[in-house]
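Quick one:
INPUT:
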């Protein structure tokens, strides 16, 4: 039995089947869980607001009168002794004898003793997986590890939403650690991360993780030209007419059949040569020469894919570090290509179940941007819609939920939300997060760095969690403005000194 924290009182309209007030005898905080017995079974409830009351100050006239007379009530009566804390609780569910949880249908009696929630019951109640869940931290105000069941967290996709600096990437790193540290018997999946800022590259330098992590940066990432269909050509390099498409399709077809006959894998130069030699209208030729020049400039289309599919392994992680890629289109192409390639491979059972985590998801699956500018969006949406059937899980991270594809976001059945203050983003979260109450929405702007709320599939009730400390080394988030400014001046001065010395 846990400690008694209070007793249910009767007020004008409580207790009823959903809500109750209780006078506190031990400190209890907002959002803490409590429990008590009802006729239907043991009820679990969440504490809402906690207020103070004092009978000596109930009457405005007597308070005002005593102040006027210069003798405050506190000097006349033992007012301090009469200060009470009164909590409001919302019943979440009732545990029946058969172990099932049901909605309460009957109010508790006034006078019912209220207890701190019991740990195992609470874990069960929240739907946590204490055996082999993904441990992202501790349930707030409870001595309980927030271990989220892998299937519930990921199979139907997860979104991590918060404003800049709230701790999204930190939390993502914690999740990566959990995936990398899983044992084979717990079920391991592969992780592939789209990392626009090179924040996760540090995993490959961390002794504890380096054997399971591979980082591919701008100079490593390659797309096999021979794997590219004519349709992708069109998708990547904006609109071409159907006859123009037909021409390139023909050339690619020829090159591919020669390759299959053992001629070796062709490259961009070979394709360029074929275009030059081919009989096509001047305009078509020019279009394709122009496209091929752009492709050459991107320095991305080569003979082979890198990373190749065989690098995707259970319990391992691939980081696609896009931080050195400046071109917006090139980044989009990389994301689209690998997203669709992985998904296709997974559908054919060629790679293990995997988690595809996209940082800055609003840039790759944006809302209200034309599809020629949002090359990766349709693929991300497709995985969002169909991925769960094939165990291709999507993780979308964004500091701009408003700018993120509604379809993609609404397919994420678990939302992990950290601090957000922008009203538009809050509105979007409210609309897209199933089961989120206005009470919970109200708490979001007040969250501190590293505090999150999990709603949706992964938990049976919205749960506040303090994200745990990470075990891996942290990405250097960069220098402070002040020190960068000082360093610049130092450097300038040094150069001047050098010149003086030289003269
Ligand atoms: N749970 C946590 N515990 C301790 N420190 C944290 C935690 N979460 C975040 N921080 C710190 O807060 C800072 C911002 O975190 P982070 O980079 O994860 O934010 P972000 O939401 O990804 O921001 P951005 O949108 O700019 O990418 C970092 O310095 C990080 O170390
Ligand atoms: Mg970040």
């Amino acid at each position: 039995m846990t400690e008694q924290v209070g007793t249910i009182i009767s007020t004008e309209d409580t207790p009823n089947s959903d809500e109750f007030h209780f006078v506190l005898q031990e400190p209890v905080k907002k959002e803490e869980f409590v429990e008590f017995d009802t006729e239907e079974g043991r009820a679990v409830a969440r504490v809402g607001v906690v207020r103070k009351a004092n009978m000596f100050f109930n009457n405005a006239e007597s308070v005002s009168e005593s102040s006027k007379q210069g003798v405050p009530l506190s000097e006349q009566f033992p007012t301090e002794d009469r200060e009470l804390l009164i909590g409001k609780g919302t019943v979440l569910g009732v545990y029946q004898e058969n172990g099932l949880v049901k909605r309460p249908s009957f109010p508790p009696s006034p006078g019912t003793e209220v207890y701190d929630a019991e740990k195992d019951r609470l874990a069960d109640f929240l739907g946590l997986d204490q055996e082999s869940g993904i441990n992202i931290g501790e349930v707030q105000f409870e001595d309980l590890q927030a271990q989220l069941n892998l299937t519930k967290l990921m199979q139907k996709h997860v979104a991590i939403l918060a404003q800049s600096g709230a701790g999204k990437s930190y939390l993502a790193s914690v999740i990566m650690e959990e995936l990398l540290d899983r044992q084979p018997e717990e079920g391991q999946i592969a992780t592939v991360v789209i990392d626009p800022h090179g924040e996760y590259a540090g995993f490959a330098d961390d002794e504890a993780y380096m054997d399971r992590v591979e980082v591919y940066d701008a100079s490593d990432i390659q797309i096999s030209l021979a794997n590219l269909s004519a349709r992708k050509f069109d998708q990547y390099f904006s609109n071409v007419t159907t006859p123009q498409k037909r021409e390139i399709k023909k050339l690619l077809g020829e090159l591919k059949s020669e390759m299959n006959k053992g001629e070796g894998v062709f490259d961009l130069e070979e394709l360029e040569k074929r275009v030059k030699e081919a009989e096509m209208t001047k305009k078509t030729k020019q279009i394709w020469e122009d496209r091929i020049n752009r492709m050459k400039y991107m320095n991305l289309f080569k003979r082979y894919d890198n990373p190749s599919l065989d690098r995707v392994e259970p319990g391992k992680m691939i980081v696609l570090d896009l931080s050195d890629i400046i071109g917006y289109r090139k980044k989009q192409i990389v994301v689209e290509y690998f997203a669709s390639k992985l998904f296709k491979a997974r559908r054919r059972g060629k790679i293990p179940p995997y988690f595809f985590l996209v940082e800055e998801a609003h840039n790759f699956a944006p809302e209200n941007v034309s599809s020629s500018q949002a090359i990766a969006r349709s693929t991300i949406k497709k995985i969002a819609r169909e991925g769960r059937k094939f165990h291709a899980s999507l993780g979308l991270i964004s500091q701009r939920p408003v700018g993120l594809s509604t379809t993609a976001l609404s397919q994420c059945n678990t939302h992990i939300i950290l601090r957000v203050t922008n009203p538009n983003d809050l509105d979007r979260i409210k609309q897209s997060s199933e089961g989120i109450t206005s009470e919970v929405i109200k708490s979001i702007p007040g969250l501190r760095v590293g505090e999150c709320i999990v709603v949706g599939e992964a938990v049976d009730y919205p749960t506040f969690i303090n994200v745990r400390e990470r075990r891996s080394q942290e990405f250097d988030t960069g220098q402070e403005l002040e020190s960068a400014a000082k360093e610049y001046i130092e450097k300038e001065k040094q150069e001047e000194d050098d010149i003086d010395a030289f003269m």
